[in-house]
Amino acid sequence: MGRLPVPRGECRFTIAALAPLRHDFSVPFRSLFFRHLLLRPTALLASLGLALLAGCGQKPAGTGGPATSSVPVFTYEVVHTWPHDPGAFTQGLVYLDGALLESTGLNGRSSLRDVELATGRVQRRTDVPAEFFAEGMTVLNGKVFQLTWQNQQGFVYDLASFAREKAFTYTGEGWGLTTDGHVLIMSDGTAQIRCLDPATFAITRSINVTLNGQPLAQLNELEWVKGEIWANVWQTPAIARIDPATGRVLGLIDLTGLLPAGDRAPDTDVLNGIAYDAAGDRIFVTGKNWPKVFEVRLRPK
């Protein structure tokens, strides 16, 4: 999802992840209300099954222990790191032929980029008109498909030239985008994922995503990995692994601490961006305004 950079605030909520994560996710109080000023913070907490532990240093009355989860939780090891433009507000990420294709957001700064993995150098770039806040992006049949946040409009580019060929429309917000090689798979910040025909953009199927039987909203950047839909859960260091047939969350990936504190700047924002190299079986992740891209390997927790 696009969303403005997280504003800095002194008051913080600490939310405890599903018990197996064994980490607290500290979320700036003000950020809960600045997701383009539309975030419903209670939906975020409920959707991940998180328990609100403390606000401004005080535990709210009636708060119980953290919810439990029956899904497996994975941690990670860093295999390799590469440089990344810290000015790139990453919204979509795709690995293709040794490079990364990247969609970046913010009005007046949105773009589609071809990035050299080894150096982080932008090899090709086309800018998005300033009235659009670019979002998720994917590649299918020699075309690049890119969403925008609130304009209910996306763009189609020629992959070889990055020339913008046409626009398409959809209802609601645009957040994440991926493909299974046949259809476009789109998130909009709710617990529903839509499958779109890449020629007509008609909805062919909807997937209701659930975690332990409860809707899981705030699904952001998407990636198709070995027959699963992987989704960044906005404002958390978690990636959900989703069964596309049922919408059930099959597992959670806890990437807490991936970007070291020493690499964070005042404008460093949340984890967002998943790319998969199917041939090499490699997973790449980054975040909004992060100075690094990480190749990670999953390990059971």
Explain this structure.
It is a single chain. The chain has one helix at 41-48, and strands at residues 12-16, 24-28, 51-55, 73-83, 90-96, 99-104, 111-116, 122-127, 134-140, 143-148, 153-158, 164-169, 177-179, 184-187, 192-196, 203-208, 210-211, 214-215, 219-225, 228-233, 238-242, 249-254, 271-277, 282-287, 292-300. It has 301 residues and is mostly beta strands. It has one domain (73-300): Methylamine Dehydrogenase, Chain H (7 Propeller), CATH 2.130.10.10. The strands form six sheets. An eight-stranded mixed β-sheet has the order 19-20-21-22-4-25-24-23, with no helix packed on it. It has a four-stranded antiparallel β-sheet with strand order 5-6-7-8, with no helix packed on it. The chain has a four-stranded antiparallel β-sheet with strand order 9-10-11-12, with no helix packed on it. Strand 23 (271-277) and strand 24 form a beta hairpin. The longest helix is centred in the N-terminal third of the chain and has 8 residues, at 41-48. The chain is globular. The model is unreliable at 6-47 and 49-68 (pLDDT under 50).
Layout of SSEs?
Layout: E1 12-16, E2 24-28, H1 41-48, E3 51-55, E4 73-83, E5 90-96, E6 99-104, E7 111-116, E8 122-127, E9 134-140, E10 143-148, E11 153-158, E12 164-169, E13 177-179, E14 184-187, E15 192-196, E16 203-208, E17 210-211, E18 214-215, E19 219-225, E20 228-233, E21 238-242, E22 249-254, E23 271-277, E24 282-287, E25 292-300
Parallel strand pairs: 4-22
Antiparallel strand pairs: 1-2, 1-3, 4-25, 5-6, 6-7, 7-8, 9-10, 10-11, 11-12, 13-14, 14-15, 15-16, 17-18, 19-20, 20-21, 21-22, 23-24, 24-25
